[in-house]
Write a structure and sequence with these properties.
There is one protein chain. The chain is built from 14 helices and 9 strands. It has a 9-stranded mixed sheet with strand order 1-2-6-5-4-3-7-8-9, with helices on both faces. Helix 3 runs antiparallel to helix 4. It folds into 2 domains: 85 residues; 200 residues, Rossmann fold (3-Layer(aba) Sandwich). By secondary structure, the protein is an alpha/beta fold. The chain is 47% helix and 12% strand.
Length: 329
């Protein structure tokens, strides 16, 4: 019942633009405390409790029978996951707290019944993001492909943004190596401009078009959902790959970047080492991201051991962030 309540309030209705997104956590807390039977509660009981706790707008909206029908349909048809669902991505709740989206639209009902971010025993699966430029140099695509290969072989979940370029190369590689990938989109599921392979999720209603604001929100969700995020290609102060990594580092997310301009022959080539790619890689290192040091001359060799080490660093980084939050004065 709680999922139906959230789906009704934050689905395609106009109410989602009226209520603060974080307010859903207060609504859920209220109902969980006072409902005697969450699963079989009636609309009347839900509305009465909300009215008593001064959720007057929500109670009035939920009194509309048509809205109730719409909310039930979203759940029954497997179109959404809500923050009240057991299968909601735990990493989003852990990293975003009250700012986690109340509702996520999904491309496949299997994401409700067999979420790929959970292991068969219900525990959290390791999630690794692969992101980068839409029009990268060939080395960016190669790195994205190798990271995706590693994710697939390790049976982790790949997370990306569904864009062409690095995102696409990463996602395809994950799937070619037996893994699964979830793409977080900056627009509605009905607004895809190209084929996207794997699962897709979005906070946007089905017919909402792309916007810069939604792209920034999508980037934040990618980093929040992942235990480690690998920036396969980024240019200094240009594009969403740079801005997304910068914002994630400010929040102490575990960001790893492909550094191919600091070693080998490229290091002596001013055009690359001092260009937008080289500047981005040095800046990300200085900002606290972990370098995935690569030499173009040996890029055909496996990089699995370096990625394993980067994942170890990422978990240490997350543990340090948690300790800082607990014990900082």
């Amino acid at each position: 019942m709680l999922s139906t309540v959230i789906a009704t309030l934050y689905g395609e209705s106009d109410f989602r633009s009226i209520s603060r997104v974080s307010r859903h956590t207060q609504i859920l807390s209220c109902l969980r405390k006072k409902l005697s039977d969450e699963k079989n509660a009636s609309w009347e009981e839900v509305i009465e409790i909300l009215l008593k706790d001064n959720f007057n707008q929500e109670a009035a909206f939920l009194s509309d029978k048509n809205q109730q029908t719409n909310g039930r349909g979203l759940i029954a048809d497997g179109k959404v996951i809500t923050a009240a669902c057991d299968m909601y991505p735990q990493t989003l709740l852990n990293n975003l707290g009250m700012s986690a989206p109340p509702l996520i639209w999904i491309s496949n009902p299997l994401l409700r019944t067999s979420p790929p971010w959970q292991n068969s025993d219900g525990s959290q699966r390791v999630c690794v993001a692969g992101v980068g430029c839409r029009t990268p140099l060939n080395v960016g695509r190669v790195v994205a492909t190798k990271v995706g290969e590693w994710v697939g072989k390790r049976e982790f979940l790949g997370v990306s943004g569904g864009a062409q370029g690095c995102d696409e190369a990463f996602g395809m590689s994950v799937m070619h190596n037996g893994g699964k990938v979830v793409h977080l989109l900056p627009h509605g599921l009905n607004k895809c401009s190209h084929d996207i392979y794997g699962y897709s999720m979005t906070v946007c209603p089905p017919n909402e078009a792309f916007s810069t604001g939604r792209a920034m929100e999508r980037n934040a969700l990618i980093y929040a959902m992942s235990h480690m995020s690998v920036v396969c290609s980024a240019r200094y102060r240009i594009g969403g790959s740079w801005q997304g990594a910068l914002a994630a580092l400010k929040l102490r997310r575990a960001v790893v970047f492909a550094d191919w301009t600091s070693a080998g022959e490229v290091a002596s080539q001013t055009k690359l080492a001092e260009g937008t790619y080289g500047l981005a890689q040095r800046a990300l290192r200085n900002l606290g991201a972990h370098p995935l040091s690569l030499e173009l001359e040996s890029l055909k060799a496996p990089i699995d051991e370096k990625l394993d080490a980067a994942l170890d660093w990422s978990f240490e980084q997350m543990a340090g962030a948690v300790n800082t939050g607990l014990f900082a004065s």
